[in-house]
Protein backbone atom coordinates (compact mmCIF):
# COMPACT_ATOMS: atom_id res chain seq x y z
CA UNK A 1 0.00 0.00 0.00
CA UNK A 2 1.22 3.52 -0.80
CA UNK A 3 0.29 4.65 2.71
CA UNK A 4 2.62 1.97 4.14
CA UNK A 5 5.45 3.14 1.90
CA UNK A 6 4.90 6.75 2.92
CA UNK A 7 4.87 5.84 6.62
CA UNK A 8 8.05 3.81 6.19
CA UNK A 9 9.73 6.67 4.35
CA UNK A 10 8.87 9.16 7.10
CA UNK A 11 10.09 6.76 9.76
CA UNK A 12 13.32 6.18 7.82
CA UNK A 13 13.98 9.93 7.70
CA UNK A 14 13.38 10.22 11.44
CA UNK A 15 15.61 7.28 12.35
CA UNK A 16 18.44 8.62 10.20
CA UNK A 17 18.18 12.05 11.80
CA UNK A 18 18.23 10.61 15.31
CA UNK A 19 20.75 7.77 15.04
CA UNK A 20 22.77 8.86 11.99
CA UNK A 21 25.55 6.34 11.21
CA UNK A 22 24.39 4.04 14.01
CA UNK A 23 21.34 3.13 11.90
CA UNK A 24 21.89 1.46 8.51
CA UNK A 25 19.09 0.86 6.01
CA UNK A 26 19.21 -1.77 3.27
CA UNK A 27 16.77 -0.66 0.57
CA UNK A 28 16.96 -3.97 -1.32
CA UNK A 29 16.08 -6.06 1.74
CA UNK A 30 13.88 -3.33 3.27
CA UNK A 31 15.65 -3.86 6.60
CA UNK A 32 17.49 -1.93 9.28
CA UNK A 33 20.58 -2.61 11.30
CA UNK A 34 20.82 -0.47 14.46
CA UNK A 35 24.01 -0.41 16.55
CA UNK A 36 23.53 0.18 20.28
CA UNK A 37 24.64 2.18 22.14
CA UNK A 38 26.75 3.16 19.07
CA UNK A 39 28.67 1.48 16.26
CA UNK A 40 32.06 1.73 17.97
CA UNK A 41 30.87 0.92 21.50
CA UNK A 42 31.96 -2.04 23.59
CA UNK A 43 30.00 -4.11 24.45
CA UNK A 44 27.93 -3.81 21.28
CA UNK A 45 24.37 -4.91 20.54
CA UNK A 46 22.95 -5.02 17.02
CA UNK A 47 19.21 -4.91 16.36
CA UNK A 48 18.08 -6.10 12.92
CA UNK A 49 14.59 -5.21 11.76
CA UNK A 50 12.97 -6.56 8.59
CA UNK A 51 9.98 -4.52 7.40
CA UNK A 52 7.17 -6.51 5.75
CA UNK A 53 5.33 -4.84 2.88
CA UNK A 54 2.23 -4.51 5.07
CA UNK A 55 4.08 -2.59 7.82
CA UNK A 56 2.71 -0.63 9.60
CA UNK A 57 -0.90 -1.10 8.50
CA UNK A 58 -1.16 -4.79 9.41
CA UNK A 59 2.06 -6.35 10.73
CA UNK A 60 5.07 -5.21 12.72
CA UNK A 61 8.81 -5.45 12.06
CA UNK A 62 10.50 -8.86 12.30
CA UNK A 63 13.25 -8.38 14.88
CA UNK A 64 16.53 -10.13 15.59
CA UNK A 65 18.87 -9.09 18.41
CA UNK A 66 22.56 -9.94 18.46
CA UNK A 67 24.49 -9.24 21.69
CA UNK A 68 27.15 -11.88 22.45
CA UNK A 69 27.74 -10.52 25.95
CA UNK A 70 24.14 -11.22 27.03
CA UNK A 71 22.42 -14.57 27.75
CA UNK A 72 20.29 -15.92 24.88
CA UNK A 73 17.22 -16.17 27.13
CA UNK A 74 17.53 -12.45 27.90
CA UNK A 75 17.73 -11.60 24.19
CA UNK A 76 14.65 -13.70 23.35
CA UNK A 77 12.68 -11.98 26.13
CA UNK A 78 13.78 -8.54 24.88
CA UNK A 79 12.67 -9.30 21.30
CA UNK A 80 9.30 -10.53 22.56
CA UNK A 81 8.87 -7.34 24.60
CA UNK A 82 9.65 -5.13 21.59
CA UNK A 83 7.39 -7.03 19.20
CA UNK A 84 4.52 -6.59 21.67
CA UNK A 85 4.88 -2.80 21.26
CA UNK A 86 3.51 -2.90 17.71
CA UNK A 87 0.04 -1.49 17.17
CA UNK A 88 -1.48 -1.84 13.64
CA UNK A 89 -1.43 1.47 11.83
CA UNK A 90 1.45 3.01 13.81
CA UNK A 91 5.17 2.90 13.10
CA UNK A 92 7.04 1.56 16.11
CA UNK A 93 10.75 1.17 15.34
CA UNK A 94 11.76 4.31 17.24
CA UNK A 95 9.84 3.14 20.31
CA UNK A 96 11.42 -0.30 20.08
CA UNK A 97 14.96 0.99 19.61
CA UNK A 98 14.68 3.49 22.45
CA UNK A 99 13.29 0.86 24.82
CA UNK A 100 16.17 -1.45 23.92
CA UNK A 101 18.75 1.31 24.27
CA UNK A 102 17.55 2.14 27.77
CA UNK A 103 17.27 -1.55 28.68
CA UNK A 104 20.84 -2.24 27.55
CA UNK A 105 22.10 0.68 29.61
CA UNK A 106 20.20 -0.60 32.64
CA UNK A 107 21.62 -4.11 32.22
CA UNK A 108 25.13 -2.72 31.88
CA UNK A 109 24.76 -0.59 35.01
CA UNK A 110 23.42 -3.56 36.96
CA UNK A 111 26.37 -5.67 35.77
CA UNK A 112 28.83 -2.95 36.79
CA UNK A 113 27.23 -2.65 40.21
CA UNK A 114 27.48 -6.42 40.69
CA UNK A 115 31.14 -6.36 39.69
CA UNK A 116 31.83 -3.46 42.03
CA UNK A 117 30.08 -5.19 44.91
CA UNK A 118 31.94 -8.45 44.22
CA UNK A 119 35.27 -6.59 44.19
CA UNK A 120 34.41 -4.84 47.46
CA UNK A 121 33.41 -8.11 49.10
CA UNK A 122 36.59 -9.78 47.88
CA UNK A 123 38.63 -6.92 49.30
CA UNK A 124 36.80 -7.17 52.62
CA UNK A 125 37.46 -10.91 52.79
CA UNK A 126 41.14 -10.30 52.07
CA UNK A 127 41.28 -7.77 54.88
CA UNK A 128 39.55 -10.19 57.23
CA UNK A 129 41.96 -12.97 56.25
CA UNK A 130 45.04 -10.84 56.78
CA UNK A 131 43.87 -9.87 60.26
CA UNK A 132 43.04 -13.45 61.22
CA UNK A 133 46.63 -14.34 62.10
CA UNK A 134 47.17 -11.33 64.36
CA UNK A 135 47.74 -11.95 68.03
CA UNK A 136 45.98 -8.76 69.08
CA UNK A 137 42.38 -8.87 70.25
CA UNK A 138 39.67 -6.34 70.88
CA UNK A 139 38.31 -5.81 74.33
CA UNK A 140 34.53 -5.92 74.86
CA UNK A 141 32.93 -2.61 73.94
CA UNK A 142 35.81 -1.51 71.73
CA UNK A 143 35.79 -1.41 67.91
CA UNK A 144 38.64 -3.00 65.93
CA UNK A 145 40.52 -1.33 63.09
CA UNK A 146 39.60 -4.30 60.91
CA UNK A 147 35.88 -3.49 61.24
CA UNK A 148 36.53 0.06 60.06
CA UNK A 149 38.54 -1.24 57.10
CA UNK A 150 35.73 -3.63 56.18
CA UNK A 151 33.23 -0.78 56.24
CA UNK A 152 35.52 1.31 54.02
CA UNK A 153 35.89 -1.53 51.52
CA UNK A 154 32.12 -1.96 51.28
CA UNK A 155 31.13 1.69 51.10
CA UNK A 156 33.89 3.29 49.02
CA UNK A 157 32.77 1.81 45.72
CA UNK A 158 33.87 3.19 42.32
CA UNK A 159 32.18 6.25 40.88
CA UNK A 160 28.84 5.93 39.13
CA UNK A 161 28.65 4.51 35.63
CA UNK A 162 27.47 7.88 34.29
CA UNK A 163 30.74 9.45 35.44
CA UNK A 164 32.74 6.58 33.95
CA UNK A 165 30.98 7.11 30.63
CA UNK A 166 32.07 10.75 30.66
CA UNK A 167 28.74 12.29 31.61
CA UNK A 168 29.28 14.94 34.24
CA UNK A 169 26.97 17.80 35.03
CA UNK A 170 28.17 21.09 36.54
CA UNK A 171 26.42 22.50 39.56
CA UNK A 172 23.38 24.65 39.01
CA UNK A 173 23.26 28.33 39.81
CA UNK A 174 20.55 30.93 40.22
CA UNK A 175 20.13 33.98 38.06
CA UNK A 176 21.84 34.98 34.84
CA UNK A 177 24.65 37.52 34.72
CA UNK A 178 23.72 40.51 32.52
CA UNK A 179 27.31 40.77 31.27
CA UNK A 180 27.24 37.14 30.14
CA UNK A 181 23.92 37.72 28.37
CA UNK A 182 25.45 40.70 26.57
CA UNK A 183 28.43 38.55 25.55
CA UNK A 184 26.29 35.70 24.23
CA UNK A 185 23.79 37.94 22.46
CA UNK A 186 26.21 38.46 19.58
CA UNK A 187 27.18 34.80 19.32
CA UNK A 188 23.76 33.19 18.86
CA UNK A 189 22.99 32.06 15.31
CA UNK A 190 19.42 31.18 14.30
CA UNK A 191 18.65 29.00 11.30
CA UNK A 192 15.89 29.43 8.77
CA UNK A 193 12.44 28.23 9.97
CA UNK A 194 11.29 24.91 8.48
CA UNK A 195 7.61 24.02 8.16
CA UNK A 196 6.20 20.49 8.01
CA UNK A 197 2.46 19.73 8.15
CA UNK A 198 1.74 23.13 9.70
CA UNK A 199 4.35 22.76 12.47
CA UNK A 200 7.33 25.13 12.29
CA UNK A 201 10.83 24.26 13.51
CA UNK A 202 13.77 26.63 13.98
CA UNK A 203 17.22 25.93 15.44
CA UNK A 204 19.50 28.26 17.38
CA UNK A 205 23.19 27.55 18.09
CA UNK A 206 25.91 29.26 20.12
CA UNK A 207 29.49 28.41 21.19
CA UNK A 208 29.90 27.94 24.95
CA UNK A 209 32.51 26.86 27.48
CA UNK A 210 30.57 27.13 30.75
CA UNK A 211 27.10 26.51 32.19
CA UNK A 212 26.45 30.21 32.83
CA UNK A 213 26.65 30.79 29.09
CA UNK A 214 24.03 28.08 28.48
CA UNK A 215 21.63 29.88 30.80
CA UNK A 216 22.45 33.19 29.15
CA UNK A 217 21.73 31.82 25.65
CA UNK A 218 18.33 30.51 26.76
CA UNK A 219 17.54 33.78 28.53
CA UNK A 220 18.46 35.84 25.46
CA UNK A 221 16.34 33.65 23.17
CA UNK A 222 13.34 33.92 25.48
CA UNK A 223 13.48 37.70 25.23
CA UNK A 224 11.92 37.21 21.79
CA UNK A 225 8.13 37.04 22.06
CA UNK A 226 8.01 34.65 19.12
CA UNK A 227 10.47 32.18 20.65
CA UNK A 228 8.99 32.53 24.13
CA UNK A 229 5.57 31.67 22.70
CA UNK A 230 6.83 28.53 20.91
CA UNK A 231 5.09 25.33 21.95
CA UNK A 232 8.46 23.83 22.89
CA UNK A 233 12.03 25.11 23.09
CA UNK A 234 14.07 21.91 23.23
CA UNK A 235 17.65 22.41 24.41
CA UNK A 236 20.85 20.36 24.68
CA UNK A 237 24.44 21.33 25.36
CA UNK A 238 27.82 19.62 25.53
CA UNK A 239 30.98 21.16 27.03
CA UNK A 240 34.42 19.52 27.03
CA UNK A 241 35.82 19.48 30.59
CA UNK A 242 39.17 21.35 30.62
CA UNK A 243 42.08 19.03 31.31
CA UNK A 244 39.86 15.93 31.38
CA UNK A 245 39.95 14.17 28.00
CA UNK A 246 36.76 12.26 27.27
CA UNK A 247 34.78 13.99 30.03
CA UNK A 248 31.93 16.33 29.13
CA UNK A 249 29.50 18.55 30.96
CA UNK A 250 26.21 17.85 29.18
CA UNK A 251 22.49 17.97 29.77
CA UNK A 252 19.20 18.63 27.98
CA UNK A 253 15.73 20.08 28.51
CA UNK A 254 12.63 18.58 26.83
CA UNK A 255 10.51 21.66 27.60
CA UNK A 256 7.40 19.50 27.56
CA UNK A 257 8.27 17.49 24.42
CA UNK A 258 9.01 14.17 26.14
CA UNK A 259 12.22 12.43 24.95
CA UNK A 260 13.09 15.21 22.45
CA UNK A 261 15.87 16.71 24.55
CA UNK A 262 17.53 13.34 25.05
CA UNK A 263 17.46 12.69 21.31
CA UNK A 264 18.95 16.12 20.67
CA UNK A 265 21.77 15.41 23.13
CA UNK A 266 22.29 12.04 21.44
CA UNK A 267 22.86 13.91 18.17
CA UNK A 268 25.56 16.03 19.83
CA UNK A 269 27.18 12.89 21.23
CA UNK A 270 27.26 10.78 18.05
CA UNK A 271 28.51 13.77 16.02
CA UNK A 272 31.02 14.60 18.78
CA UNK A 273 29.86 18.22 18.96
CA UNK A 274 31.87 20.06 21.59
CA UNK A 275 31.38 23.37 23.38
CA UNK A 276 28.00 24.18 21.89
CA UNK A 277 24.41 24.67 22.95
CA UNK A 278 21.56 24.08 20.52
CA UNK A 279 17.92 25.05 20.98
CA UNK A 280 15.15 23.94 18.62
CA UNK A 281 11.92 25.91 18.80
CA UNK A 282 8.74 24.20 17.64
CA UNK A 283 5.45 25.90 16.99
CA UNK A 284 2.70 23.24 16.87
CA UNK A 285 0.37 23.63 13.89
CA UNK A 286 -2.50 21.43 15.02
CA UNK A 287 -1.53 18.22 13.19
CA UNK A 288 0.05 15.43 15.24
CA UNK A 289 3.34 14.30 13.68
CA UNK A 290 4.00 11.21 15.79
CA UNK A 291 7.60 9.92 16.03
CA UNK A 292 8.47 11.88 12.87
CA UNK A 293 8.71 15.01 15.02
CA UNK A 294 11.92 13.75 16.63
CA UNK A 295 13.55 13.41 13.23
CA UNK A 296 12.41 16.90 12.24
CA UNK A 297 13.81 18.37 15.47
CA UNK A 298 17.16 16.64 15.01
CA UNK A 299 17.35 17.42 11.28
CA UNK A 300 16.69 21.10 11.96
CA UNK A 301 19.46 21.13 14.57
CA UNK A 302 21.90 19.11 12.43
CA UNK A 303 21.55 21.43 9.43
CA UNK A 304 22.43 24.51 11.48
CA UNK A 305 25.26 22.70 13.28
CA UNK A 306 26.71 21.80 9.87
CA UNK A 307 26.25 25.33 8.55
CA UNK A 308 28.06 26.79 11.57
CA UNK A 309 30.90 24.27 11.43
CA UNK A 310 30.15 22.35 14.61
CA UNK A 311 29.50 19.27 12.47
CA UNK A 312 31.51 18.52 9.36
CA UNK A 313 29.46 17.13 6.46
CA UNK A 314 31.13 13.78 7.02
CA UNK A 315 29.41 13.61 10.39
CA UNK A 316 32.31 14.48 12.72
CA UNK A 317 32.81 17.51 14.90
CA UNK A 318 34.95 20.44 13.88
CA UNK A 319 36.32 20.67 17.42
CA UNK A 320 36.02 23.69 19.63
CA UNK A 321 34.10 26.78 18.64
CA UNK A 322 32.55 25.90 15.29
CA UNK A 323 33.82 26.88 11.86
CA UNK A 324 32.38 29.02 9.11
CA UNK A 325 29.11 30.59 10.09
CA UNK A 326 26.87 30.23 7.08
CA UNK A 327 23.71 30.21 9.14
CA UNK A 328 21.20 33.03 9.25
CA UNK A 329 22.46 35.22 12.08
CA UNK A 330 19.81 37.17 13.90
CA UNK A 331 19.98 39.85 16.52
CA UNK A 332 18.54 38.74 19.86
TrEMBL record:
- Which organism does this sequence originate in? Tetradesmus obliquus (Green alga)
Among PROSITE patterns, the record links this protein to:
RWD, UPF0029
Q: Which InterPro entries match?
A: Impact, Impact_N, Impact_N_sf, Ribosomal_Su5_D2-typ_SF, RWD_dom, UBQ-conjugating_enzyme/RWD, UPF0029_Impact_CS
Question: Which controlled-vocabulary keywords does the entry list?
Answer: Coiled coil, Cytoplasm, Repressor, Stress response, Translation regulation
**Subcellular location, principal:** cytoplasm
Cross-referenced Pfam families, in alphabetical order? Impact_N, RWD
- Biased composition, class Low complexity, residue ranges: 128-144
Q: Residues in domain RWD?
A: 10-107
Q: What is this protein called?
A: RWD domain-containing protein
SUPFAM superfamilies per the record?
Answer: Ribosomal protein S5 domain 2-like, UBC-like
- Name the protein family: Belongs to the IMPACT family.
Which GO BP annotation is one of this protein's? Answer: GCN2-mediated signaling
Compositional bias of type Gly residues: which residue ranges?
Answer: 312-324
Chain segments annotated as coiled-coil in the UniProt record? 97-124
Q: What GO cellular component term, any one, is given? A: cytoplasm
Q: What is the lineage of its organism?
A: Eukaryota, Viridiplantae, Chlorophyta, core chlorophytes, Chlorophyceae
Annotated compartments: Cytoplasm
Identify the stretch(es) annotated as Disordered: 128-150, 311-332
Amino acid sequence: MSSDKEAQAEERESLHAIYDADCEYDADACSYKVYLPSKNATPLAVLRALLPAAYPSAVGPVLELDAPHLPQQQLVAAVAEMEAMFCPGDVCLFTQVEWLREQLQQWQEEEQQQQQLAAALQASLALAGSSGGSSSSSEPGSSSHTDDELDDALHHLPESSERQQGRELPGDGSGVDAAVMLQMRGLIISGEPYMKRKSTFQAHVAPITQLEQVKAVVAVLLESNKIRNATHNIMAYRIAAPGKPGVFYQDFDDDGEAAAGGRLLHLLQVADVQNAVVVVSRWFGGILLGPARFGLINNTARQLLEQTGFIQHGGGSSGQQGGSKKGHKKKH
